Amino acid sequence: MKLKDKKVLQLVSDDFEDLELWYPVLRLREEGAAVHLAGEKKDHEYTGKYGVPAVSDVSFKEVDPNDYDALLVPGGWSPDKLRRYEEVLSIVKKMNEDNKPIGQICHAGWVLISAKILEGKKVTSTPGIKDDMENAGAAWVDQPSIIDGNIISSRRPPDLPDYLRDFISVMEK
């Protein structure tokens, strides 16, 4: 149990990429981490792109970033919704200021772009938002997973094993 006593916050809203939300949650729980899902509303059921549900443990407004060791942002179309909540952007900014691991996969980079934390970072994402990442000041690279300080980024579901190995290694430090 590499991550015993660690707490991770996973953001959620409708239209998340099912694998990009659930694979990290389950993998981190296997390592002993407590993973809480945060949505606009507490105890609300959100639906992934392929119909898999996820129920939020807390609302964005209830989250205290100081209570968590790391943050995950799922991909899919969910990031376009998540970045519209000031509470979400505040959580991301605070976690970044505190140098806590922030994982982003696929379209999740949109949330980090809106939080304005990618300037000078080396990242990856789905190629569809490459220009967005570069316009935010990041150096975009096409590889399965990249670690740049506290930010761990990945492209898409087939890259999940590499992404989670990297995310777990950063959390262990």
From TrEMBL:
Membrane-crossing residue ranges in chain numbering: none
GO MF annotations, alphabetized: transferase activity
Keyword Protein transport appears in the UniProt entry: no
SUPFAM superfamilies: Class I glutamine amidotransferase-like (SSF52317)
Keywords from the named record: Glutamine amidotransferase, Transferase
Alphabetical list of Pfam families matching this protein: DJ-1_PfpI
Residue stretches making up the DJ-1/PfpI domain: 6-168
Keyword Transferase included in the entry's annotation: yes
Listed PANTHER family: DJ-1 PROTEIN, DJ-1_PFPI DOMAIN-CONTAINING PROTEIN
Family affiliation: Belongs to the peptidase C56 family.
Record-given protein name: Type 1 glutamine amidotransferase
